[in-house]
Every structure is written in structure tokens, then in C-alpha cells.
Design a protein that fits this description.
Elements (H helix, E strand, L loop, with lengths): L2 H21 L3 H21 L32 H24 L26 E4 L2 H6 L4 H4 L5 E4 L7 E2 L23 H6 L6 E2 L2 E4 L5 E4 H9 L3 H9 L14 H85 L5 E6 L2 E6 H25 L1 H20 L2 H4 L2 H26 L9 E7 L4 E7 L3 H4 L12 H48 L12 H12 L1 H27 L6 H35 L3 H13 L2 H34 L17 H39 L12 H7 L4 H8 L8
Antiparallel strand pairs: 1-2, 3-4, 5-6, 7-8, 9-10
Helix pairs in contact: 1-2, 3-13, 3-15, 3-17, 7-8, 8-9, 9-10, 9-11, 9-20, 9-21, 11-20, 11-21, 11-22, 13-15, 15-16, 15-17, 15-18, 15-21, 17-18, 18-19, 20-21
């Protein structure tokens, strides 16, 4: 006999024995009672949307367990191997961080490098602290891309910037001009040959190493223009108008072209000026922004508190407003179509394609689209009305749960602070690593210096003693102009270490960020599950549910958290790799490759979204049942698939209400900030500061208020998701009888047409006890 049929037979037998033993009725009465019981059970199955179906495709529904009443107490550590791997990787990250902090210097990133990648002021360029550009016109032609990809002209480090204007065609060559040529230029060649071979500049302008561009030689004519105003073209004509300026290919460079291309540097200098003003505005208004953000936190808390009372009103008003909007749109479009003359034409520009429609045709098209959307929405509303009611009831119950455990609203501050710490630490490591790659001085002190070196067959960590020349033929120090194989190897090894270190640190950044998110989700899930499975609330709720959830999370399930976050980190790294490949293919004409790459990017984006949803529900199951990650993910997936319609509706309705709440809070905060900083509030005008750009604090307040609202509503969202999975388990485990009462709220039982027999028994005895 199949297992499902056997279990059904045993249940029927137990029911019959119970009827015979409890009621002591005659067989005919037992048969009637049994038939009534079976019909009620069938109706219960129909009302619960088939959650008791046992086709085997989506697993076997859960059965009643008399020992289960919420998050289990007796647990064991889960996914220990993944926990150990996580600890090992953290140790590796600590090693990379140590090497970065020990050998890197972020200050070096502020200094320029020449065309050979050597840092100005160090190594071969010691004493040459300033960067000089051969052809500024080539820089200007790059546009704003110069600040991303750099200038495509030769660049050399020099001891001082030019103090005069020079053009090799009209000016005689002097030894002073040769200091701006590349080091090691061929002294046997003529000046024209040196220019044509890009060993010396064809021209240069009087410049100075301005501090705000960090040791780059900036033409004085540009600086004067920015400081004094006027016309850049006029200034250049007055300063260098008598020079015959050409490039290295002897092509004439007009004064107009020079002025136009020099203006790109003005963008940078103006941006710096604006940045300084923005910083000044932030410094002047930081405490005012803090007060507004505290007010936004209070509004968020208030919104969550009253959500339990207005959630249903908000949802239904929005639904009927949506229906009314599209009904009116459909009517108006068709009415306009009927009453318009068909001779008029209307042009719509879509992606540079011009579609010439008559006005009636346009309104007919929009009317059809509006009618289709209205019809689809009506069908969804008619068939999923009960499920929308379930979503609203769960949202209200989430508000009650948060009200009983107010510390859950404060808890997200700690994961958020940890996330900020992870971001700050990763940025520090990445910065120090990048500066390590720029350090070109392989200095050797009197005692020893440690280097990574490769022997004939394997990697070894060698300690090079004072006289490296006895081992490798010559030392590698900042005064050495020659490049031996050993010195070249040291440079390449250092560059490879930087690349691999950056990739590894980025992977650890994704892993740690997802791990911190997982800790927050599992902790909140454990607390809210304790609330749901308390039969009489608040009496049966554990004393410190949040603290107990944190203890279970760190004591037993760090491995499961590391496992789930590792999966998301791997997918994130694959997406970064695809973005890198996409950037490399931008200049190619391979349309097939670009199309496949776009498809892969879309697929992995969808995969990441699905995995985030699955891992979130897996963490909820781990918090409740204490199983490992894979088993919990499977149980969560099967439970969701057995109730897929409910899950889809509840998830979307919840997301909609969360979005609505965020928009209300962010909009109110932004509006308040606008009226205050623009001086629109009369009784606060005395406190309104005088700012360069009053939009700056408004934008900052808007962004940060969205982050604050997201933190609060993430708790709300987690509460609903946890209560929903508990609700689905409750439907499968219990049937409302005295032995197996439901734990769900009375609202949910009324929506499903269910009730607890234990409640009826208590009412007969005069008791007013309720399970909610």
C-alpha cells in the first residue's frame, strides 16, 4: 500500500475509533458523523487552495507534531564545513589586508605616474615631482573621458614645469628645453626627429604645478582665465599668438582649437570649486539635516505603528483608485477616438524612429491598451480577492508582532552599522592595494628586505640579505637605472599580487555583505517565529525572543549563514566578470557576442533575484527548525510551490505597501527639507542658513531618509515573510480540532472560514481566552 494511502487509512481508522469511543453512539449515528466530518475536511481542503495535495511533485505536506510549538530548542551546529571555509577565507582576507596596509600608501595615489607607469618623485623619477603632458590638445579631445581613461599623449615626470611658451618650429632649441623630453632620448637625432618619434614635445605652454591638480603642470593662461574670467580664446591669443604651434606630425594647431581643448581642464577646476562649496554647505547644515532625519525616523516608527489599522484601507483604496483611473482612461480614449477627425496626423518619436499616426488611431491604440490592463486587473481582483485579504491580514499581524517586540525596530541599526564597517574596511584595503601597485622603489636597507620570488620550480618566500648582487647580479634600489631580470620580476610580481588581491578582496566584500544581511534576516525570523507559535499572546511569547534568536544564530547556524551568503557572492562575482567582459567588447563589432553577453547578464540578474528570495526563506526555515541550509532551502521551496498563488499575491501586495510607505516617508521628509532650506517656512526663517546650493542638503536628506525608511520597513517585510511561512505550516500541520488547534489569528481564520474547536469549548465553559 502506498505511504500516502496507508497514512490516510490510519487517520480514518483513528477518527472512527474516536467517534465510537467518545460519543458512544450507535453505528448509524457514527456513519453520519463520519460522513459529516469527511465533508468538512473536504471543504477545508478546498478552502485552503489545495495545500494538502500529495501528488509528490512538490513534496509531502507537513503533518501534525505534538512536540512542535515554534523554533525548536534542541539544535546542533549546521554546515560546519562551510563555517570552517568561511573562517579560512577571513584569515586570507586578513593576510591580504596586512600586506596592503604594510606596503601600501594611499597618499601615493594622489601623485601622478608617467607613460611608463612610474611614480613621479620616486625610483627613477626621484627629484622629478611634477607631471608634464606633451600635447594638451590630445587630452582635450578625449572630453570628460580624460578623467576616467587618462590622456593619450606622452607624459613625463619633470623637476619643474615650463616657465615659458615654446614651439619647436619657431623657437631655437636650447638645453633647457630638453629637460621635458623622455629620459634616455637619442641625443644623435635632430629636434624634428625627436618630436616626430614622440621623444620630445612639439610645444608647451608656460605652466605651474597647481596644488589643486596635485603636481600636474597646468597652463598659466587657463588658471588666469578661471580666476579672473574673460575669454579663454582672447587670453591665449594675447599670450601665445606669435607662436606657430604644431603637433608631432607637423599639423598646425590653431589658437581656437587650443582654447577649445584646454577648456576640458576648466571643467575639472570648476568641479573642484563646486565640490568645495558643497562641502561648506554640508558642514554648515549637518546638525539641521540630523534633526530632519530623526524626524523621519519618528515618522517611520509612527507609520509602522498605525499600519495595523490602516493597511486594509490603504490597499483597497489604492486598488479602487487604480480601477477608476484605467476605467476613465479607457472611456476617454474611446470617446476621443469616436469624436476626432481622421485627417489629422500625430507624430511620436520613439528611439529616433518617427511613427506617423492619425490622432484617432493613436487614441484607439491607447484605449485598447488601457482596456486590456483594466480587464487583466479585474480578473486578478475577482479571482485573488481572498488572497489579497490574507496579505492584508498578515500585514496587520506583522504590525502586532513588532508592537509586542519593539526591540526589533532597533535591531536593524546593528546590521546596518556592520555593513557600513564592511564597506569602509573593503575600501581601505582596496585603496592600500592600489597604492601598493604604484610603489616603484625597490629599496634595500642595510639588514634585509622581504620579497616574493619564484625559484626554478615553485614559489618560495626568500629573505634577501644585504648584498643582493651576489645572488642576482645587482641590487634593486631607487638609484638604479638599469632593469635586471630580478628587478623586472619584482615589479611584475607586485602588480600580479595587486590584481589577485583586489579580486579576492572584492569577493570577500560580497561574501561579508551578504553574511551580515543573512544574520539580520535569520535573527528577525527567529524572533517573529517565536511570536507566531505562541498560542496565547502575549503570555506564551518567550521573555527575550530577539536575544534568543541572536544566540541560536551565532551558536548553531554560522555555517548555514556562510553557505547562503557564499552562493550569492559567487553569483555577484560572475555578474562583475560579465560587466568587465561587456566593457571590453564595447569597441568591437561582434553583434552576436554582444547579444549573448546581454542575455547572460539578464539571466544572472534574474538568478540573483531568485536566489535572494530563496535564501531569505531558507534562513526562516533554519531559524524555525534548525536544519542545515540545503534541507531548509528545499523545505522552503516545496512549501512555497505548494502555495505558489498565495505566495505570489502576498509577496507583491506586501512589496506594494512597503513601497507606498517608503514613498510617503521619503516624500514628506524631502518636502519638509525643501521648505526649510529654501526659506518657505515663515516661523523658521531665522534658522534658515545661507547656502551656495540649498539643493545639496535636500538631496542628502532625501537619500538618507530612504535608507532609514528601508531599515524600518525591512523589519516589517521580514515579519510578514516569516509569519506567512508559519501560516502555511500552520495550515498543513493543524486542523482546528482540540488536539491540533490553529495558531493563526482570528482574522486569518475568518478569511479561510476556519475556527478552533478549543475556542468553542472555552466559550461553552464561560472562558474568554483567545489564541490571539
Amino acid at each position: 500500500m502506498p505511504r500516502s494511502n496507508k497514512r490516510k487509512f490510519e487517520q480514518e481508522k483513528a477518527t472512527e475509533e474516536k467517534l465510537l469511543g467518545d460519543h458512544k453512539k450507535d453505528p448509524s449515528e457514527v456513519i453520519k458523523t463520519k460522513s459529516r466530518f469527511q465533508m468538512e475536511e473536504k471543504e477545508s481542503k478546498d478552502e485552503s487552495d489545495g495545500v494538502f495535495e500529495t501528488d509528490g511533485e512538490h513534496g509531502t505536506p507537513l503533518t501534525y507534531d505534538p512536540t512542535f510549538n515554534g523554533p525548536i530548542k534542541k539544535r546542533s551546529c549546521t554546515d560546519i564545513i562551510c563555517c570552517l571555509i568561511f573562517i579560512i577565507f577571513i584569515g586570507g582576507f586578513a593576510g591580504v589586508s596586512y600586506l596592503a596596509f604594510a606596503n601600501g600608501d594611499p597618499y601615493l595615489l594622489l601623485y601622478p605616474v608617467d607613460s611608463n607607469g612610474e611614480l613621479c618623485g620616486y625610483g627613477n623619477n626621484k627629484g622629478k615631482d611634477y607631471l608634464f603632458f606633451f600635447d594638451l590638445v590630445q587630452c582635450g579631445r578625449m572630453g570628460v573621458g580624460i578623467f576616467v581613461s587618462g590622456c593619450p599623449t606622452p607624459q613625463v615626470c619633470v623637476a619643474s614645469c615650463p616657465d615659458t611658451n615654446y614651439a619647436y618650429i619657431t623657437d631655437a632649441a636650447t638645453s633647457a628645453d630638453l629637460q621635458f623630453c623622455k629620459s634616455g632620448y637619442d641625443t644623435t637625432l635632430s629636434r624634428t626627429a625627436l618630436v616626430e618619434r614622440d621623444q620630445c614635445p612639439a610645444y608647451f605652454l608656460k605652466s605651474s604645478p597647481r596644488k589643486f591638480v596635485i603636481n600636474r603642470c597646468v597652463p598659466e593662461v587657463l588658471v588666469n582665465f578661471l580666476e579672473d574670467g574673460g575669454s579663454l580664446l582672447t587670453n591665449i591669443q594675447a599670450d601665445v599668438g606669435n607662436k606657430n604651434i604644431t603637433d608631432s606630425n607637423s599639423n598646425d594647431i590653431s589658437i581656437e582649437s587650443l582654447a577649445q581643448n584646454l577648456d576640458i581642464f576648466g571643467i575639472f577646476l570648476k568641479a573642484k570649486e563646486y565640490a568645495e562649496k558643497i562641502v561648506a554647505d554640508i558642514v554648515a547644515t549637518w546638525w539641521m539635516m540630523l534633526v530632519i532625519l530623526i524626524l523621519s525616523m519618528i515618522v517611520s516608527l509612527t507609520w509602522i505603528t498605525i499600519m495595523r489599522f490602516i493597511a486594509g484601507i490603504m490597499v483597497w483604496i489604492t486598488i479602487f483608485a487604480f480601477l477608476g483611473l484605467f476605467a476613465f482612461s479607457t472611456y476617454w480614449c474611446f470617446w476621443t477616438y469616436v469624436n476626432l477627425d481622421g485627417d489629422e496626423e500625430f507624430s511620436i518619436h520613439i528611439v529616433s524612429i518617427v511613427l506617423h499616426w492619425s490622432k484617432p488611431d493613436m487614441f484607439l491604440a491607447f484605449g485598447i491598451i488601457s482596456a486590456v490592463i483594466l480587464l487583466i486587473f479585474l480578473i486578478i481582483l475577482l479571482f485573488l480577492c481572498q488572497r489579497i485579504r490574507i496579505a492584508v491580514s498578515l500585514i496587520k499581524e506583522g504590525s502586532r508582532a513588532i508592537g509586542k517586540m519593539m526591540f526589533t525596530l532597533i535591531f536593524p541599526i546593528f546590521p546596518f552599522a556592520l555593513q557600513l564597517g564592511v564597506v569602509a574596511y573593503w575600501l581601505s584595503v582596496a585603496t592600500f592595494l592600489a597604492s601598493t601597485g604604484r610603489k616603484q622603489d625597490f629599496s634595500v636597507n642595510e639588514n634585509n628586505t622581504d620579497y616574493w620570488n619564484q625559484t626554478a620550480n615553485d614559489w618560495n618566500y626568500l629573505k634577501i640579505v644585504a648584498d643582493t648582487s651576489s645572488l642576482f647580479g645587482e641590487t634593486c634600489n631607487e638609484n638604479t637605472n638599469t632593469t635586471s631580470d630580478f628587478c623586472t620580476f619584482l615589479k611584475n610580481a607586485e602588480e600580479n599580487f595587486v590584481i589577485y588581491g583586489q579580486v579576492f578582496s572584492l569577493f570577500m566584500f560580497f561574501w561579508l555583505m551578504n553574511f551580515v544581511v543573512a544574520v539580520g534576516q535569520m535573527t528577525l525570523a527567529g524572533a517573529f517565529a517565536s511570536y507566531y507559535w505562541a498560542f496565547e499572546k502575549p503570555r506564551d511569547i518567550p521573555t527575550f525572543p530577539l536575544a534568543a534568536a541572536i544566540w541560536r544564530c551565532f551558536r548553531y547556524h554560522l555555517g548555514s549563514l556562510a553557505f547562503g551568503s557564499l552562493i550569492l557572492a559567487i553569483v555577484a562575482m560572475i555578474r562583475v566578470l560579465l560587466e568587465y567582459v561587456d566593457a571590453k567588447l564595447k569597441g568591437t563589432e561582434n553583434a552576436v557576442g554582444k547579444f549573448l553577453l546581454k542575455c547572460l547578464k539578464c539571466c544572472f540578474w534574474c538568478l540573483e533575484k531568485c536566489l535572494k528570495f530563496l535564501t531569505k526563506n531558507a534562513y526562516i526555515m533554519v531559524a524555525i527548525h534548525g536544519k542545515n541550509f540545503c534541507s531548509s532551502a528545499k523545505d522552503a521551496f516545496m512549501l512555497i510551490m505548494r502555495n505558489i498563488v498565495r505566495v505570489a499575491v502576498v509577496d507583491k501586495v506586501t512589496d506594494f505597501i512597503m513601497l507606498l510607505g517608503k514613498l510617503v516617508i521619503v516624500g514628506a521628509t524631502a518636502a519638509g527639507a525643501y521648505f526649510f532650506f529654501s526659506g518657505g517656512i515663515e516661523f523658521l526663517k531665522d534658522y534658515t542658513p545661507t547656502l551656495n546650493f540649498y539643493v545639496v542638503p535636500i538631496v542628502i536628506v532625501t537619500i538618507v531618509s530612504y535608507v532609514v525608511a528601508s531599515c524600518f520597513f525591512s523589519v516589517y517585510s521580514m515579519a510578514v515573510d516569516t509569519l506567512f511561512l508559519c501560516f502555511l505550516e500552520d495550515l498543513e500541520r493543524n486542523d482546528g480540532t482540540t488536539e491540533k488547534p490553529f495558531y493563526m489569528s482570528k482574522d486569518l481564520m475568518n478569511i479561510l472560514g476556519k475556527k478552533n474547536q478549543v475556542m468553542a469549548d472555552k466559550k461553552k465553559k464561560g472562558s474568554h481566552g483567545e489564541n490571539f
